[in-house]
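Hi L.,

As promised, C4-dicarboxylate TRAP substrate-binding protein DctP:
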Amino acid sequence: LKTTAKALVCAVSIGLAGIAHAADPIVIKFSHVVAEHTPKGQGALLFKKLAEERLPGEVKVEVYPNSSLFGDGKEMEALLMGDVQIIAPSLAKFEHYSKGIQIFDLPFLFDDMAAVDRFQKGPVGQELLSSMEDKGITGLGYWHNGLKQLSANKKLLEPKDARGLKFRVQASAVLEEQFKAVRANPRKMSFAEVYQGLQTGVVNGAENPYSNIYSQKMHEVQKYITESNHGLLDYMVITNTKFWNELPKHVSKELRAIMDEVTVEVNKHAHELNMRDKQSIIDAGKTEILYLTKEQREKWREVMRPVWKKFEAEIGAERIKAAEAANQ
Ligand code: LMR
């Protein structure tokens, strides 16, 4: 009888422990606005996989792609309210939180992704990650998407070709000025609305990396893509500072290590994913990809470059210098 009672107590306590454990994982909602087969979409899924493998029963990561939980107009507020724990907005979406981050939107600032990498890993890039702590936002790392290409229903070869066209822009004053510089009309619009905006003619053109063009089917409603590589679309992965600081130490330490690992992976494969999607766009046969001559590209650079001056005071001249130095 004694043994049975003991076994029973044992079974009950195992049962309770089981229940307590199962009910207990820290739930991390990771919300984003792009498709799953993009660099950010893949990164979010890899983060979930590794976090759940290495902190079994302790952490559960729920990934919400395609603006299915919050669109980009709402995700920052949701993070601050604690309705979502990790988001990775494009660097164009931070102007209300950190003026310095606007640096990443300056047209023709970085020669290539290697320069972007050097800058993000350098002191200024690292400092910007923690520039929003006072607002309750902690930066965990930079994820690449890549360089942006212009698209429209007419051939954009020289800046004058863009005159009068309506371009969709992200919520960024720098990007608005960039299109004003070529006498086009910028229109702020959330990412989820871009396809429809292009389809109905609310806007005539856009700027995106190939992965976003392809996954949103924008190539079906844009006849031409100009491979301009004129600006950057990268992300800062961010979390709610209070949430992060209150995690058990071993959990935040492990999650940070995982995030660093995922960051390396995302940044290693982002270019490849964009090139794959470029090829898919070519294969779909609906859009012609145009390449600029050196002289043509130089013209775009010349007209857009004055935008830097307009934001120099907000961004900081020293930061801009550091970014230029990253081009080597
Ligand atoms: C956009 O709005 O164009 C991008 O920020 C979307 C994204 O997250 O890549």
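The two ends are 80 Å apart (CA to CA).

Thanks again for sending the construct details.

K.
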